[in-house]
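My convention is simple: the sequence line spells out the residues, with the fold written below as integer tokens. I include a record here:
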Amino acid sequence: MPRRRSLSQAQLAAAALTVIDRDGLAGMSMRAVAKELGMSTMALYRYVEDRRELEGLVVELVLSGVDPAPPDPAAPWRERLETMVLRMRDTLGAHPEVVPLTAVHRHGSVSLLRWSETVVGILADGGVEGGRRVIALRGMTSYVIGALQLEHLGPLAGEGTDVIAALPKDEFPVMAATAADARGIDPDEEFRGGLALLLSGIEG
């Protein structure tokens, strides 16, 4: 099998992302990525030490699509925070299988650090300081990752909701009623509604 002698990190990441988008995270292996690149598995190890390093490259490639530029400074700070979170959601949401990797490799992503720098700057503008600012940043990051994972596993109006709505009402009366209400909530409404609750807590 012919070897390609000079591959960039972006090319390696793009090949791995292609595998993940097509075959899922479980389908990503050094062998699968090497095949995508048209090389042997051993040749791939000339470029990356292991799968973990390759995962980090994928996370950085995806998150590089998030615009880190501060939103309009004339807008209210809460509105600016919402803009930043929605940018992250739109970018990560296009590659849902990568979302779990974001949690693992978040500290190694320069793009995520740039996004975070803008977010903490907006929080500072809103008077959120010290420990509250730390918790707010972590809360927003956790919300995006967690909400996207749940949405990928199944939206509120999915089959799981039907199962819960059918639970015995004498034993789970509130859960059954809540699940019935969930049938009319689409993913965008769910995400924005949860984000609004989070931002209200930060603002308060």
